[in-house]
Design a protein that fits this description.
mainly alpha; about 0% strand
C-alpha cells in the first residue's frame, strides 16, 4: 500500500500546502485590510465552478479566471461612484447568488454544492495534491520575488511611490496571487471559509510578533497546526473537516491574543 493511499495523509499534505501559501499572503490581506476583498474573490469561485461546468472545462482554470476577473473588476470600479466597501459587498454577494442561481438552471449537472462551499479535504486525490502544491509554490515564489516591493507598497505607499515602486502593479500582483490561492484552496476549505484561512492565522501571528517576516513565518506555522488539530478533531468528533480547521485557527487566535495582552501588561 502506498503512503498516499491513506485519505488522512493526503488531507494533511493538502492542508499544509494551502497553509504555506495562505500564511504570508494572509499577512498582506490583514495589513491592507482586504478581508472583504478576499470574500468577494472567494465567492466568485462558485461562479467560476458553474462557468467551468457550463463550458465543460477543468474546474481550476474556471475558478482562477472568475476570481481574477472579480478582483480586477472591484479594484477598477471602486472609488468612482461607490466606496470600496460598497463595491466589495455587492460583488461578494452578487457572485455567490449568481453562482447558486446559475447552478440551479443547469438540470443536467449534478454537483456536491456543500463540497464547494465548505470544502471536502478528505476527498483530495493525488492529482489534487499536485495542483495544490504547484499552486502554493507559485504563490510563495511570487511573494518571495516581490516581497520587499509588496511590503513597501503595503506599509508606506507614499514612500514606495517616491522610491519608484509601481504600487498599482504590486496591487495587481497581490490580486493575482489571491485569486490563485482561492482556486487551489477551494476543495480544502471551500468558498465560504477561504478568507478565514487567510486572515485568522495572520491575525493570530500579528498579536505576538514584531516584524513582517516573523509574522509571515508564524502565520504559516499557525496555519499548519490548525490543519493538524482540525483534522484530528474532525476524525475523533465526526465534525466537518474544513470548519474544524478554521475553528482550530480561531482557538489559536484567542490564545495568541491572550499572550499578546499579557506581554503588553508586563511591558
Amino acid at each position: 500500500m502506498s503512503f498516499l493511499d491513506d485519505f488522512l495523509i493526503r488531507a494533511v499534505i493538502a492542508g499544509i500546502g494551502v497553509a504555506m501559501a495562505a500564511g504570508p499572503l494572509g499577512c498582506f490581506v490583514v495589513w491592507r485590510r482586504m478581508a472583504y476583498f478576499g470574500d468577494a474573490t472567494s465567492h466568485a469561485a462558485l461562479l467560476g465552478v458553474v462557468l467551468a461546468l457550463a463550458v465543460e472545462m477543468p474546474i481550476l482554470p474556471g475558478v482562477a479566471i472568475a476570481a481574477v476577473a472579480m478582483a480586477l473588476t472591484v479594484s477598477l470600479a471602486s472609488g468612482e461612484r461607490y466606496g470600496a466597501d460598497t463595491m466589495l459587498g455587492v460583488a461578494a454577494h452578487a457572485a455567490l447568488a449568481l453562482g447558486l442561481v446559475a447552478l440551479s438552471l443547469m438540470p443536467n449537472v449534478r454537483v456536491d454544492l456543500s463540497g464547494y462551499l465548505f470544502g471536502d479535504i478528505l476527498s483530495v486525490s493525488r492529482a489534487d495534491l499536485v495542483t495544490i502544491w504547484v499552486g502554493a509554490a507559485i504563490i510563495v515564489g511570487i511573494l518571495l520575488w516581490r516581497w520587499s516591493r509588496l511590503l513597501l507598497a503595503t506599509l508606506n505607499e507614499d514612500l514606495a511611490v517616491s522610491t519608484g515602486v509601481n504600487t498599482d502593479f504590486e496591487k495587481i500582483v497581490l490580486t493575482v496571487a489571491l485569486a490563485l490561492l482561492v482556486a487551489v484552496a477551494l476543495q480544502v476549505v471551500g468558498a465560504l471559509l477561504i478568507t478565514a484561512m487567510l486572515i485568522i492565522p495572520a491575525a493570530a501571528a500579528r498579536a505576538v510578533t514584531g516584524s513582517p517576516e516573523a509574522m509571515a513565518r508564524l502565520a504559516v506555522l499557525i496555519g499548519i497546526l490548525s490543519v493538524l488539530a482540525g483534522l484530528e478533531a474532525s476524525y475523533h468528533l465526526d465534525t466537518p473537516a474544513g470548519p474544524s480547521i478554521v475553528t482550530a485557527s480561531v482557538v489559536a487566535l484567542v490564545l495568541t491574543s491572550m499572550i499578546g495582552a499579557i506581554r503588553g501588561r508586563k511591558a
